[in-house]
Amino acid sequence: MGNRQSGLSFPAIAQRVFLSAVVAGLLLMGCRTSRDIAEKPVLSDARVSYTVDATSPASGIFTVSLVPEKLPLSGDALFCIPSWAPGAYQFVEYGNYVRSLEAYSHDGERLTVIKLTTGTWKIPNSERLSKIVYTVTELQRRDLLWPEMTELTGLRGYANGTNIFGYLQGFTALPCRVNYLLPQGWQVASAAEDSSGSVTAFAENYDELADSPVIMGRFKRYDFTVLDKQHSIILDVDSLSSDGKTASKGSGNTSERGLKLGTGFRPDSLISVTKDIVLSHYKFFGELPYKKYLFIHRLVPLHIFSNYGALEHLQSSAYYMPLFDWHKARQNEIASTVSHEFFHVWNPKLIHSNLLGPFDYQNRIRTRNIWFIEGVTDYYSDLILVKAGVLPKETFFQNMLQRLEIQKVRDHEDKESLESLSLRIADIEHINEIFPFYLKGPAVMMMMDIELRHRTANRFGMDDLLLSLNNAYGKAGKSFPDDSLVIIISRLSGADITEFHRKFIAGTEPLPLNEYLAKAGLVLKRTSVLKPDMGYLVLPDTAGHFSIAYVTEGSAGEKIGLKEGDILLTINGIQSEEGDIFLQSLIEPEPETGKDTITFTVMR
Predict the structure, then answer these.
(1) Which CATH number describes the domain made up of 536-603?
(2) Fold annotation for 348-519
(3) Which fold is adopted by the domain 221-346?
(4) For the chain, what percent of residues have pLDDT higher than 90?
(5) Which of 146, 239, 421, 470 has its CA 20 to 30 A from that of 262?
(6) Would you say 94 and 83 are in contact if contact means Cβ atoms under 8 Å apart?
(7) Per residue in 512-528, pLDDT tens?
(8) At the top level of CATH, which class does the domain 31-218 belong to?
(9) How far apart are the first and last CA of the chain?
(10) DSSP symbols for 396-446
């Protein structure tokens, strides 16, 4: 699935691991959700209006105002900030990043506000409430991906809807209007925007607003139409300056040297593959079930220690990914990642259990079905592109084999079933714990696909299952009981998968891959390939340098003069800042075309 470096794995797997489906959290007292509280009767023109002030980016603080318009407030009102974001795993408690909160009456008098929990405030005598004003600080944590964070600097502003928008309990079904105040020269984009370039946004309800991440700054925007629906690519790109240092340009260009090498980034390459991805999904599902869709990309030079990843939403997705070679967009991890996130529009945004909709922003969710959400989605991220002719089938097999090889190394660690891991997804202590969903999960889903086809004489496979589920639940706007998915799959397919589920999903029996591949006319064959060994180990440091950790005595590395502590600058003229092409040269150095030598440049 990704590039590998001597003794280290470039975190392409992490790109999938952090791509995700369901999240949760626990709030001991305070706000309950719309599932628990009946929405209160309101006037037809009632709504909630927000103003987001980002005009002081140096402070790193958003100032948010909430105005309840024609809401029948009385007695105690509860104002809540979510504890998690739809599509993310971590229980973040965004209330921790609210620094001040004040409530005002219609005549400007400050009202009493009582903080009940991390994300809950009580406002007595709420019939007098005219406005709530609160500030939100940046959220920067190493255990979170950039798409989950809150950022406000001189370069950009970014936040998930859950990070900055609170709600009044009992009124989340109301329409929401947002007005953004921006620094001079900035623009704003979100799936809820009124139009391209607008500083106002509208959501039909709070769930839609919370599921619409927003980006602000001097980004580049590319709008295009697919099947009469607007799609937009937002590009906030950190490029390489002439001295090789990172500079945030928003332009989508890398260094002149990179362009000369043919390894620079060009926006049209991303636009082209994105169009193909959208059309591939339309060909499969026969619909694009949204009004418009935004792809928000934050692209940066490759850094071995970065947490790359993405987060899906109903009408948008956000990405923090390394820059890639423009002529390799379809082979790069970016294509699979965008396809993965876009597939989530159906699974689980439309096809989901009762525990995943309506959203519960406060309490941990105990769902059995993450294996299906992430396993099927990752299985199809490449497969759906193969079916549409965008990728060759060899790419699908290569990526699947890489998963299997990595899973083989991890087999001794993975003693927990996929279903058990699903049930405790809200309690994981380290993100590495969810690796099985993206390694073992797709393999099990491929086996299930073969199982269904084998049991039905190839009349019903995973394609048919997904389309049937979408017709029965997605298009109908229905959810299914969380513990009934296996029964539903058996009923729709006519093939009882209870035993398959017991062995490989609820259980931990070894995967008989060869047996299942044989049923599909495939053979898994392992061969050994001899490759030259330079005899050195290179380790990256936190500054992005690649240092020689040791050199094996008598090796080719020692003979050409490499020494422990050398900082590797170039291989055959390819600079260390030039991303995946440098890593590939580092892993498997080969002579330049027409030559029989490999040239290293080091600093001592």
Answers:
(1) 2.30.42.10
(2) Neutral Protease; domain 2 (1.10.390)
(3) Neutral Protease; domain 2 (1.10.390)
(4) 61
(5) 146
(6) yes
(7) 999 999 999 998 887 77
(8) mainly beta
(9) 34
(10) HHHHHHHHHHHHHHHTTT--S-HHHHHHTGGG-SSGGGGHHHHHHHHHHHH
